[in-house]
Amino acid sequence: MIITGRNKQKLELAASQLKNAETIVSDFSDAEDVEKLVSLIKKDHPDVNVLINNAAAANIYSVTGETENVFEKAGEEIHTNYLSVLRLTEKLLPVLKKHRNAAIVNVTSIVALVPGSLVGYSASKAALHSYTQSLRFKLEQQYPVIKVFELLPPLVNTEFSKPIGGEKGVSPRFVAEEFLEAFERDIYEVHVGFTKDLYKLSLEAPERAFEAMHPVQSKVLLN
Question: What is the pTM of this model?
Fold first, then answer.
């Protein structure tokens, strides 16, 4: 298993809790880092057959003029959460195509279905949701050995989500267990916790689903 990210200390902490985990410090939003990472995988780890894209960039801002640099902040979110995932996936597809069984897992969010309070984050995850569906459709036709999964958690209690009330969210362990069960059963779109209810509501009554994400008394439901 290889885990990669920008923060060496966080990577080492995560690796200490896993079996046979190797860490690679890399910023996959940076083109040069991506080239180095892909070259390293092709050279030293050609047996890699599962890619999990868990991009995370989110900013709190208003789109009605009360916040400065909205364009730049939204650009960061789109680049990190969507375009960088697309680039890394494209670069690693040749490795995955060599295996009889391979998988791509894109982690989006409940807000990929119904936008939440973080506008740019919601838009970036919606874009990734759309891309994931298209990628799955194309690979099923041309390279059916590669399965494409999408994990859509609700609010998760992590350090990343603290600014938006993450302590009210589900545990990371719960999300992981839900995903592993779906992965083993080939359930390609994995709705975790409240996401299941919101998905059904969005099909039956889109207005009510939107209201559920924006209640009168502030209650943010976001990955």
Answer: 0.92
